# Entry
Amino acid sequence: MTPESELTTSESTQPIATFLVFRGSAEEPQGFQEFKVPVEEGMVVLDAVHYIQQHFAPDLAVRWNCKAAKCGSCSAEVNGKPSLMCKTRMDALPLDEPVRVSPLKAFPLTRDLVTDVSWNYEQNKRITPFTPKDENTDAWNVRQEDVDRVQEFRRCIECFLCQDVCHVVRDHDQKDAFVGPRFLVRLASLEMHPMDAADRIPFIKEEAGSGLCNITKCCTEVCPEHIHITDNAIIPLKERVVDRYYDPVLWFLRKLRGKA
Amino acid sequence: MVQNYETRYECHHHDVLVVGAGGAGLRAAIEASAQGLSVGLVCKSLLGKAHTVMAEGGVAAAMANVDGEDGWQTHFKDTMHGGKFLNNWRMAQIHAQESPDRIRELERWGAVFDRTESGKILQRPFGGHTYRRLCHVGDHTGLELIRTLQDKGVHSGMDVYMEATITHLLMDNGRIAGAFGYWRESGRFIVFSAKTVILATGGIGKAYSVTSNSWEYTADGHAAAYRVGAELIDMEFVQFHPTGMVWPNGVKGLLITEAVRGEGGQLTNSEGERFMKNVDPKRMELSTRDIVAKAIYREVKEGRGSPHGGVFLDISHRGAEFIKKKLPGMYRQLLEFADVDITKGPMEVGPTTHYTMGGLRVEADSAQTTVPGLFACGEVAAGMHGANRLGGNSLSDLLVFGRRAGIGAADYIRQNPGVPVIRDEDVDAAARELITPFEQENGENPYELHRELQTMMQAKVGIVRQEADLQSALTDLQGLAERARRVSVQGSRQFNTAWHLAIDLGSMILASQAVAHCALQRQESRGGHTRLDHEGYNDYWARHNSTVRQENGDMRIGVSELPQMPEELAKLFEEAV
# Structure
């Protein structure tokens, strides 16, 4: 179990990185534990965490699945920045100082690097699902231009880094009033789907809390799928809410038709 | 006798318990819910993270949107040819016939596929498919599929148990009665009573060291079902995907989608030769996976490999704009992970463990295993793909047979209305077994054992095999199995990954034994199984599936005759000649 032999052979040729990894749970003592990890070419932070598990701390709790930035499981904060560990390259980090790895701050701690992200799954359940305009079972005729926009949103891998970095969720803990960037993206993917028939604008305003976003674009910056969350999803949804509720001409027309 | 396990363990009761929440499990759970049943869906990870998200290239269905001549008969023939005729013909037929409906249904549930000029679902070419047949969304088709099913599923009324692992199936007089497992987060045990169980637990790829599979692929379903008497077939057929990255180390094993070849990617050796012309001049890079993987293996063995022990795969001649549109994920991933710009030059690729063709024997129409009330779909089930799976046929497989398993479970419940009873002693025995690693001091390290298993399987039961290696592998596996019983872990049961691995190890070793035994028995080379000492096809083995079952505690290896294809389907192959 001790890595002595590996360390002695590698010390001469390989650089060693110092890791400070958060350990603990709500019930156990919490703090950062230090580990020394030999750095190999092409290594990512998740490789280092696995090395620590295999050599020093077998019970280190961490979530991961694909190790290919496709599943969004290994979200954590590396040097304070919400990141996918499988995608954070060691050669992109300053190794003359320790690499700090900690769990997502916006969610309750389970243990070590694992947090309870169940709140996110609850948000999805509140959203009216896709509601097809056309119930017959023939294939639809839809142009690529009409789905390009929606396809961008559907690249989301649900890593919840955008939820973690968002001030409204993270610092102000307004989880009861705001669904967060991920689910505004989900709402945008439904609202802009050319074959969807449901109306989610009242939900977006009243329950999803689109007005709480103050467009700081932090979510867009951390998105590993490079989805333009703020510009392409949130701002257009805000505009739809404004058009519906605050446009005087539309408001008057709705009054006339009796659709307040 | 009164059973009191309910007072000692957390218990949940369902008509149908689905184990595994990848595409197959989700599709099965949606169907069973639609049939009005109470459904529990257990997933080892968070919902939506299953291996289905890794599928890139597309989902095969003879919709004939791009090539009008395509039809289910051609898809059926391609599937049988790809599987070297070891497939269950009825499964291949159902799959080819029903896939287009499953795609249209997915579109009704919100999936957004790439479109043709005229607005239909676009289809791309893929290895072994006669026509352009793979419906896709760039190179993240699996993500689209699982997200669509996930969103449909959470509104279908099922209960989802996230981050829970099922370790044991529970029986009542020869029929399934439920399952036992633990919450990963707390380590607490859970008992599920159920009238039927549907296994959708995926493959065994984590038994190998070079693999595109995640930690979840530990043969849980294979092992649990085997232990309650279910029969496994064709376990020797493991698919090595031809194009995994071999360099740099950080991305070693990372899958390069077959869509790269589908969109025109070329394979060359160190001499710049497109070596596929020597193996399959007609289909070249679009030959089936077994053939391409073996061709790459040979180039490397014979000294014509790339600097890091692979070959070159190059798509850059298609131009940067085309590549970024058609393979956006691949392009970004390689640029960000590995500093490889695929619009400018080649990748270095080699075979990586990818898919398990073998698994639980199921009835084609209902997806029921040989154990009453136990169903299986997706990768854990066998028969559909024979000796080698065609790319794109996995996503369609899990939609078609996921749905069929849901219907099968509903039919079974209608025909067997009784409620099975779980016995106290079975529950307690399962709990005792799981606790053992905490009670043993100074035992084996699970991570170390796992590494040994992976290295051994890769070397001795890998892409090419021979008798001496397989014999030696079986001896090694015996030793590993004994050491795995002496494994010890420290700490608490709360999210203890060493403990989780200690439990998974037993399943991986068991499945590895089945693979090695079957590989030793089959004295021929076919599809995903290649014997250096038995090259080429053999007439006897062309007519037989391998079988594995437990008898008096021992692993019994045997054969069964291939189901006979009816006249009207056999005729399809005569016409082709």
Remarks:
- The mean pLDDT of chain B is 95.
- The first helix of chain B runs from residue 5 to 8.
- Chain B touches chain A through 70 residues (CB under 8 Å).
- Residues 369 and 405 of chain B are 10 Å apart (CA to CA).
